[in-house]
Design brief:
By secondary structure, the chain is an alpha/beta fold. Helix content is about 55%, strand content about 10%. The protein is built from nine helices and five strands; from the N terminus they run E-H-E-H-H-H-H-E-H-E-H-H-E-H. A five-stranded parallel β-sheet has the order 2-3-1-4-5, with helices on both faces. Helix 1 crosses helix 9. The longest helix is centred in the last third of the chain and has 17 residues. The N and C termini lie close together (about 10 Å). Bound molecules: cytidine-5'-monophosphate (C5P). Cytidine-5'-monophosphate binds next to helix 2, helix 4 and helix 8.
């Protein structure tokens, strides 16, 4: 069973993906980490964000097993990720590794922006997780402030709106709900209610 979870920044899709993976005993890939790793490498190497070939080369050199989520969570890396993710050569380079992950025997859970549309269009279950920009900004603000980043709520909201516009407006694999994805809007749901709803969606699709 392949479960494809897509949605905008700070929608809670990662939490849902991890919980479903644990519940069904499936491997999980947070595909945002791939773009974040390329963005972080670009920042560290001072690569020009217009230099698509140099950024695609960084994407090709990624080692999935060496990704460190904690080191890639900053707002600056998220912004760099969103910029490199708009480049078709970077996306093309990261396609195979994601598709190979999805095709493992027994299945997998992947979360990102284009899982249900591009990476795993035949996934048995597709969930589009979303929440209002204000609710997402509040969550991301608490997360970043808790990690000691000097940010304000207004800055985080502006970042979220800018990223939404870039992720949805790009020509290459934009953030868009797959026609057969079920929407899970968790603006007014807490973590448990959100997970319960996700399990209901899986059960309705697969009987599991
Ligand atoms: O989900 P996360 O915020 O970690 O993703 C970082 C950035 O990577 C997103 O803003 C998006 O631009 C990009 N991304 C993508 N396609 C994916 C996953 C992430 O374009 N499948």
């Amino acid at each position: 069973m392949i479960i494809a979870i897509d949605g905008p920044a700070a929608s809670g899709k990662g939490t849902i993906a991890r919980a479903l993976a644990a519940h069904f005993g499936l491997p999980h890939l947070d595909t945002g980490l791939l773009y974040r790793a390329v963005g972080a490498k670009a920042l560290a190497d001072h690569v020009d964000f217009e230099d698509e070939a140099a950024l695609a080369a960084r994407a090709g050199a990624l080692d999935l097993a060496a990704l460190d989520p904690e080191a890639l969570k900053s707002g600056a890396v998220g912004e760099a990720a969103s910029r490199v993710a708009a480049l078709p050569q970077v996306r093309a380079t990261l396609l195979t590794v994601q598709q190979d992950f999805a095709r493992q025997p027994g299945g997998a859970v992947l979360d990102g922006r284009d899982i249900g549309t591009v990476i795993a269009p035949h996934a048995e279950v597709k969930i589009f997780v979303t929440a209002s920009p204000e609710a997402r900004a509040e969550r991301r603000y608490r997360e970043l402030a808790g990690r000691g980043e000097p940010v304000t709520y207004d800055q985080v909201l502006a970042d979220i709106l800018r990223r939404d516009a870039r992720d949805s407006g790009r020509a290459s694999a934009p953030l868009i709900r797959a026609g057969d994805a079920v929407v899970l809007d968790n603006t007014a749901l807490d973590r448990n209610a959100s997970l319960t709803r996700a399990l209901e969606i899986v059960a309705a699709r697969t009987g599991r």
